[in-house]
Amino acid sequence: MLFINLCTNGRIIAQIPYGVWLFPLGYLVFKSGFLPKILGTLLIVDCFGLLIYVFQYFLLPGYKVISYPCMVVSFIAELSLTLWLLIKGVKDQEPALADGQKQK
After folding, report:
1. Residue 21 CA to its chain's centroid (Å)
2. The model's pTM
3. Is 86 helix (H, G, I), strand (E, B) or coil?
4. Is residue 4 part of a domain?
5. What separation in angstroms does the CA of 59 have from each of 10, 32, 52, 69?
6. How far is CA 47 from the centre of its chain?
7. Is 101 exposed, middle or buried (CB count within 10 Å of its CB: 0-12, 13-18, 19+)?
8. Tally of domains within the chain
């Protein structure tokens, strides 16, 4: 049981760098003109939501209801970014010729 609990705790602790990474990703998405600003805002909120989830797991294990809104925001933010990149992010681009001219 020790190793099962250790594995679970390790997976939760591994969420810390991922949560921290969402802040600069959200900032870059917010500042880019390619993606909507709401996606950047959601990713920044998701950063704090994941950190709340990790600290809630260790500091207040009996109050799992605290992290439920964080998981909803996380799901919406990450799914929205994925769908945006899959659907809207792909554009038809003409291949360039070897000398830099476009095809006719």
Report:
1. 8
2. 0.77
3. helix
4. no
5. 15, 37, 10, 18
6. 7
7. exposed
8. 1
